[in-house]
Every structure is written in structure tokens, then in C-alpha cells.
Design a protein that fits this description.
The protein is an all-alpha fold. It is built from two helices and no strands.
Length: about 170
């Protein structure tokens, strides 16, 4: 049982040694250990605070990036919308110009057709008049082979000429 119950001398020297060790530790080791523990605690707390600040800064930067991306998307949409509007305007103007030019070409073609038609009608009238004159000349020559018929025709033409002059006066 001797192992389980310590002797008084042993307990005394253990207490003295422990007290001396405690005194030496308190005198020389506790302050540096406590100060290094406190310093480490402050460093850890500072690091945690910096990490929280960095996290908040990252969130702020992410929000700024998102807002910049949203602005860039909106700007791109506006530019595309303006480009579409400009394209539609240019296409519309080109169609309008093409339609106007087509109308002018049709008008010119119609005028040219009308001029050519009138010229053809004039040529036709001249030819008809020429053929009529030839036919009339041949008929008159045949009918006026004698003098009496010529005199009667001249008298008839003179009387019609006098009637036209009196009607116009």
C-alpha cells in the first residue's frame, strides 16, 4: 500500500518543488506566454477582421461588376436597337427612292410611248392624206377629162369658198 499512500516528506518536497516551479514560471514564463497568447489572439482577431473586410470588399466588387455588366448589356441593347432602326430607315429610304425612280422611269416611258404614238399617227395621217390625194387626183383626172365638168367643179369650189369667207366674217 505504500505505493498508493505517499510519505509526508515526499509530499512536502513535491509541494516545495511545485511551488518553486510555479514561482519561477510566474516570474519568468507567465508574462511572456500570456503576452504571446494575447498577441496571437489579437493577430487572429485582426486576421479575421481583415478577412471579413476582404469578403465585404469582394461582395462590393462583385456587385459593381454585376452593375457594370448590366450597364454594358443595356448599352449593347441600345446600340443594337439603334442599328436596327438605322437599318430599317436606310432600307425604307432606299425603297422609297427606288419606287420614286421607278415612277419617273415609267412616266418617261409613257411619255416616250405617247410621243412615238403621236409621231406614228402623224406619219399615218400624212400617208393617208398622200394616198387620198393620189386617189382624188386620179378620180378628178378621170372625171374632168372634158371642159364642162372642169368649169362646174371650179364654180362649185368658188361658191363654197365664198360661203366660208362670209361665215367667218
Amino acid at each position: 500500500m505504500e505505493l498508493v499512500t505517499p510519505a509526508i516528506g515526499l509530499v512536502f518536497w513535491m509541494l516545495v518543488t511545485f511551488s518553486l516551479l510555479l514561482f519561477i514560471l510566474k516570474k519568468f514564463a507567465w508574462k511572456p506566454i500570456l503576452s504571446s497568447m494575447k498577441e496571437r489572439e489579437e493577430t487572429i482577431e485582426k486576421s479575421l477582421q481583415e478577412a471579413a473586410n476582404a469578403r465585404a470588399e469582394m461582395q462590393k466588387l462583385n456587385q459593381q461588376n454585376e452593375s457594370l455588366l448590366a450597364e454594358a448589356r443595356a448599352e449593347r441593347e441600345n446600340i443594337l436597337k439603334e442599328a436596327r432602326e438605322i437599318k430599317e430607315m436606310i432600307v425604307g429610304e432606299a425603297k422609297k427612292t427606288a419606287e420614286e425612280e421607278a415612277k419617273r422611269m415609267i412616266e418617261r416611258a409613257n411619255e416616250e410611248i405617247s410621243r412615238q404614238k403621236n409621231a406614228a399617227m402623224d406619219d399615218l395621217k400624212k400617208e393617208v392624206a398622200h394616198f387620198s390625194m393620189q386617189i382624188a387626183q386620179k378620180l378628178v383626172e378621170k372625171e374632168l377629162e372634158n371642159n364642162d365638168a372642169q368649169k362646174a367643179l371650179i364654180a362649185t369650189q368658188l361658191s363654197q369658198l365664198d360661203k366660208q369667207q362670209t361665215a367667218s366674217a
